[in-house]
Every structure is written in C-alpha cells, then in structure tokens.
C-alpha cells in the first residue's frame, strides 16, 4: 500500500507533467498555426531579377517558375542574340535567388519557434536524444528477443 506522502508526491509529479504537456501542446498548436500562415504566404511569394546590363527582367513564382520576361525596348539594338540569352539566364538566376531569399525570410520565424519546443529528453530525462546510438544487446535491461521477433 502506498503511503500518503508518496501519493502526494506522485500527484504533484503528475500535475507537473500534465502542465509541461499542456504547455508543449500549446506551443505545437501555435507553431502549426504559424506554419499554415507561412505556407500560405510562401505560396504567394514572387521574385524578380534584372540583368546587369538592364536589358532583361525575369519574374518567378514561389516554385521558381518563370511568370514574366520583360525586355527593354531597345534590347535587340543594344545586344547580340548570344548576349541577350546570357542576360536572360542571369536575370532568371537572380529572380530565383530573390524568391529563395524571400521564402527564407517568411519561414525564419517558424524555424526559430522550434527552439521553444522541449525535447523528449527534457520531459523524460532517461529518453534517448537524437543522435544517440541504439542500445547495445549487452546493456542491462535490454531484451534482445524483441528484435529477434521483429522480422515475423
């Protein structure tokens, strides 16, 4: 039979764990909401790039798909076909870099929020941490028969 002091300690620990789990769930909900908003914003993100000589401007969507190509009115007089093609490629690369940077800016707060979530090992000190090696079959308390039956 469990004495009153042990029962009280057990209840207090249970309440503490419940509070930690509730806090963690709130943080996960906030992060999920933030991620949904960021996803929507990323889908609307656009980027653009202009060639160094100012002859070509390229616009892209969030997926990097070209949505517009603008040529300066005198593009064909100012440049050769080879140089124009090079300017187009340059502008497209710059547009893609622009949309990637804008996307990273939108997602940065979401990734930063991950730091607020406790790890499993913070909640349960004996839990394995990411990157820990798997337990050895020689470790006390390790039951190797579990693995032998796993392939059935």
TrEMBL record:
Transmembrane segments: none annotated. Residues 36-55, 117-152 are annotated as: Disordered. Residues 127-137 have a biased composition (Pro residues). InterPro entries: YbaB-like_sf (IPR036894), YbaB/EbfC (IPR004401). GO terms for molecular function: DNA binding. Pfam families: YbaB_DNA_bd (PF02575). This is Uncharacterized protein.
